[in-house]
Design brief:
Oligomer: heterodimer
Structural class of chain A: mainly alpha
Number of strands of chain A: 7
Shape of chain B: rod-shaped
Number of domains of chain B: 1
Largest sheet of chain B: none
Radius of gyration of chain A: 22 Å
Helix content of chain A: 55-70%
Structural class of chain B: mainly alpha
Strand order of the largest sheet of chain A: 1-7-4
Number of strands of chain B: 0
Low-confidence stretches of chain B: none
Shape of chain A: globular
Order of helices and strands of chain A: EEEHHHHEEEEHHHH
């Protein structure tokens, strides 16, 4: 069985419906969670959700503090909060369920609101469309976040660090510039693909265990528990590396 | 796994929108509240610190006041003691003077009484002597001349005795 994404073609723009769907759900979930937490803000008597969100803020503050000087990294607090919440929620969303549709019997491809969904690569293959998955289980989406982070890092580097930023390209000499270029390419690649790889592998594993049938239920429970752990760790790692990269490029510390 | 640049764009835009919304409607008020709480805690700590130092100061003041009061009480007791002893002395002196005076008066009175008694006794004795003498010698003697004689005699007796 071939699980493929339900992509429709809008005049050359290939719209991945499941990605759109999951991005929207994750974003709404994060936003609703945040709004619920700040609904009844109180200085001296915070509610449970407010306490939780404040704990997240303090956690992110400690991440920033570890990566760089907290005072200089303070402006990235909102960015890191949004990243860690979005990635964490996104990582977990793919775990509990899956929504899969199959084309009507006898057809080689499905339909959605009148649009044709892609069919099997080879005639006679059975196709199924995955509607529910982690948004972070898609390389193009994790790479979007990763490249955004790297662009922010370099942009802030040019804006705030000026001379030191340009100088780091030829440090210790011009010979090393290609190495710096490789690093420039490697950073977003590792950042994005690490997240994608972990979450995608987790979901593939869930699919494999589901294939076991009833026997796989204990293994599924164990694996889902582990995936929650992996999801949390990956959200943490992504945020941590975000701050590390931003601080490397844009925050000029004394020892450089 | 195929890489869709459309997903890339969608994710980027979606995340930017999410970030802006979160920033505007969730994080800003939350950070504001956290900052407010931080300030509140700091204020309370400062107040507590101030209160403590004030309390320390008050205790110090109380201690000093107590010391002062104790000293004053001691002074008052000392003063009372000295005043009391002085007054006692005064009373004793006054009493002694009074006693002396009374004694002297009494002595004088006794003296004068004695003198009076002696005088009246003298007169009595002289009268009696005259009667006795006149009875004895049976001769009327001029009482006055006789009393002179008797007085003289008695004086002689007084000086000899």
């Amino acid at each position: 069985m071939d699980h493929i994404a339900p992509v429709i073609n809008l005049g050359g723009f290939r719209l991945d419906l499941s990605a759109l769907f999951m991005i929207a759900i994750t974003s709404v979930a994060v936003f609703v969670l945040a709004r619920l937490a700040v609904r009844n803000l109180s200085v001296d008597n915070p509610g449970k959700l407010q306490n939780f969100l404040e704990w997240v803020v303090e956690f992110v503050q400690s991440i920033i503090g570890q990566a760089t000087d907290y005072k200089k990294g303070k402006i990235y607090l909102s960015l890191c909060m949004a990243l860690i919440m979005y990635i964490f929620v996104g990582n977990l969303l793919g775990l509990p369920l899956g929504i899969i549709t199959e084309p009507a019997h006898g057809e080689h491809y499905g339909h959605f609101l009148g649009f044709d969904l892609p069919g099997a690569k080879e005639a006679g293959d059975h196709v199924a469309y995955t509607w529910w998955k982690s948004p972070t289980a898609d390389a193009s989406m994790t790479m979007a976040l990763a490249i955004m982070v790297i662009v922010i890092a370099h942009f802030q580097g040019i804006r705030k660090n000026g001379k030191h930023y340009w100088k780091h390209w030829v440090t210790p000499s011009v010979v090393f510039t290609p190495i710096h270029l490789v690093e420039l390419m490697a950073k977003p690649l590792t950042l994005g693909l690490r997240l994608f790889g972990n979450i995608y592998a987790g979901e593939v594993m869930i699919g494999v265990i589901l294939g076991l049938g009833w026997v796989g239920i204990p293994a599924l429970a164990v694996w889902q528990g582990f995936s929650v752990f992996v999801g949390a760790i990956q959200a943490f790692v992504f945020t941590m590396l975000t701050m590390v990269y931003i601080s490397q490029e844009s925050i000029h510390s004394e020892e450089h | 796994m195929n890489f869709l640049w459309e997903n890339f764009v969608i994710q980027l835009i979606a995340f930017l929108i999410l970030f802006l919304l979160l920033q505007r409607y969730a994080f800003k008020p939350l950070f504001g509240i956290m900052e407010k709480r931080r300030q509140m805690v700091q204020e309370q700590m400062e107040t507590a610190q101030k209160n403590r130092s004030e309390a320390d100061q008050y205790i110090e003041e109380q201690k000093q006041a107590l010391q002062q009061a104790r000293k004053e009480a001691y002074d008052i007791i000392e003063l009372a003691k000295s005043t009391g002893s002085k007054q006692a002395d005064d009373i004793v002196v006054a009493a002694r003077n009074e006693a002396d005076r009374l004694k002297n008066e009494a002595v004088r009175e006794i003296e004068s009484e004695k003198n009076k008694a002696v005088a009246s006794l003298k007169a009595e004795v002289s009268g009696l002597s005259v009667q006795i003498a006149s009875k004895i010698i049976e001769k009327q003697v001029d009482e006055k001349a006789n009393s002179e004689i008797v007085n003289k005699y008695l004086e002689d007796v007084g000086t000899k005795s």
